[in-house]
Amino acid sequence: MNPCNFTHTTFILIGLPGLEAAQFWIAFPLLSMYVIAMLGNCTVVFIVRTEHSLHAPMYLFLCMLAAIDLALSTFTMPKILALFWFNSQEIAFDLCLTQMFFIHALSAIESTILLAMAFDRYVAICHPLRHGAVLTNTFTARIGMVAVVRGSLFFLPLPLLIKRLHFCGSNTLTHSYCVHQDMMKLAYADTMPNVVYGLTAILLVMGVDVVLISLSYFLIIRTVLRLPSRAERAKAFGTCVSHIGVVLAFYVPLIGLSVVHRFGNSLNPIVHVLMGNVYLMLPPVINPLIYAAKTKQIRSRVQAMFKIICGKEVQVVSNS
After folding, report:
1. Rg of the chain over CA atoms, in angstroms?
2. What 3-state DSSP class applies to 179?
3. Residue 12 forms beta bridges with which residues?
4. How confident is the model at residue 117 (pLDDT cuts 50, 70, 90)?
5. What pTM value is reported for the model?
6. From CA 100, how far away is CA 106, in angstroms rounded?
7. Lowest-confidence region among 1-5, 15-19, 70-74
8. Which of 203, 302, 196 is nearest to 255 (CA)?
9. What span, in angstroms and rounded, lies between the C-alpha atoms of 108 and 154?
């Protein structure tokens, strides 16, 4: 392959191919999802930080998960909304690399936190007497630090590998944001190092996490089935429902997007965009809703907050 005489300094993001006329209106549901994600995750972070009774590993991990979702939404949604509303398709090369790094690194960090939450459920159900000694708040904080370092180190080479490539053909991406697989396909150079390292990083982070989460739930299910009464089994398994929900909300779109990137060259471009947006927006929106609905402690604090807010509104109206 011959070297390029120049390389693009910008990339072109796409919205919804074939639905350009409707993009302006489609952006409003996206904005609603963004607002729900911000409010929901900010509420979770606020409740866990202010309620000392919730300073336990399960809720601290949930707070970390909410913080990651807030960061992921902040790094992507404003640009997507600008694309849909103002047709702001261009994104600078360095800004695209930055967005790409944070998307992959934050996804890896979230995967690690989901693994840590699975370990928390495993110890709580399979070794309940050792839970307090093993999962201390200090140990939980260290897991959070390890998650950040792990995600950052594994995916920091990706922008460096992209930086060495030349882009002198098409500079139009197939998503509304920047990801490694999408940028790599546009390069006019040997991308084998990118393919090998990208696949290795995914397998060593998300792949290992999926295997360990599955192993944790195999051991949990085995322990739960050995409990003497049906009520005890239902109660034990009920503590895992929320975590199973967020695991599925994270990994199912991730696997779907990977399959589309690998085998979806003949698919309609809108499939790539929709799968990419589902992968990006579903976890930040649905995670706080799942935990608010299924976790009594979070739900009760949310209800108390609404009562306080509604009470103040009624007081203001009556005084006026």
Report:
1. 22
2. coil
3. 90, 172
4. very high
5. 0.91
6. 10
7. 1-5
8. 203
9. 8
The answer to whether residues 242 and 143 touch, using CB atoms and an 8 Å cutoff, is no
What's the Cα-to-Cα distance from 229 to each of 68, 222, 237, rounded to whole Å? 38, 14, 13
Contact between 166 and 176 under an 8 Å Cβ cutoff? The reply is no
Whether residue 37 contacts residue 280, with contact meaning beta carbons closer than 8 Å, is answered with: no
Other beta carbons less than 10 A from residue 79's beta carbon: 18
CA distances from 61 to 54, 102, 240 (A): 11, 20, 14
Cα dihedral 167, 172, 174, 177, rounded to 10, equals 90
Token couple for 260: 């589309």
How far is residue 200's CA from residue 202's CA, in Å, rounded to a whole number?
A: 5
Please check the confidence at residue 317 and state whether its pLDDT lies above 60.
no
Q: In angstroms, rounded to a whole number, what is the distance separating the alpha carbons of residues 62 and 289?
A: 12
Q: Any idea how long the chain is?
A: 320
Report how far residue 91's alpha carbon sits from residue 11's, in angstroms, rounded to the nearest whole number. Answer: 5
d(CA 21, CA 120): 48
- Spatial distance between the Cα atoms of 192 and 77, rounded to a whole number of angstroms: 31
- Residue 10's DSSP bridge partners are 92
> What digits encode the pLDDT tens for the residues 190-210?
889 999 999 999 999 999 999
Nearest to 276 by CA among 183, 208, 187: 183
Q: Is 186 helix (H, G, I), strand (E, B) or coil?
A: coil
Chain-centroid distance of CA 317 in Å reads: 40
Q: Which of 183, 192, 197, 191 is nearest to 8 (CA)?
A: 183
Top-confidence residue, 212 or 276: 212
Q: For residue range 17-63, list pLDDT tens digits in order.
A: 877 788 889 899 999 999 999 999 999 998 888 888 888 888 999 99
CA separation for the pair 122, 151 (Å, rounded): 23
Closest C-alpha among 93, 97, 108 to residue 75: 97
The separation between the first and the last C-alpha atoms of the chain, rounded to the nearest angstrom, is 75
Q: What angle do CA 289, 114, 279 make, to 5 degrees?
A: 60
The DSSP letter of residue 286 is H
